[in-house]
Design brief:
Length: about 190
Amino acid sequence: MSVRDAIEASIAVKQALLDDEIVAQTERAADVMTTALRGGGKVLFCGNGGSAADATHLAAELVGRFQLERAPLPALSLSDNLASLTAIGNDYAFDQTFARQLLGLAKAGDVLVALSTSGGSANVLEAVRAAREIDVRTVAFTGASGGELAGLAEVCVRIPSDSTARIQEAYMLLCHTACELVERTLFGR
């Protein structure tokens, strides 16, 4: 694969994001986040590996700012607390690393944004299950198949690719777009 091939592959996936269903699901994701924030809730993100870094990045976009100068919004990444991750993984099981944090930090009316390129990450799936038990709304960004996550999340945005890199590049575009929609809706600019 050449540099040109990689860029063309990324562009092709991003071009496919113009599909009406993907646009509608991204708008729904932004609406769910906006509703939670407007109601005094927060947005929690989770993911593994590169998606963990993306979860941190997205939480920072809301707490800091994305495009607008505005008040901070309550958001956090469940991937960030290394002590909690390792303690829960060691004392319980790795698949409980996000669910246990969510149960301690979230409340009804919050929203969990789950990032999993495969849609099958056990700890992400357990977090979504835990969220549903406590009336935390759920949004997922995943790859083409959606995996098990597609059937669990209230809103699931499926990126039309099976390549981890292309999925992550594309869902970051859509997540950034959702952050911009949240800002503009809440702060009216």
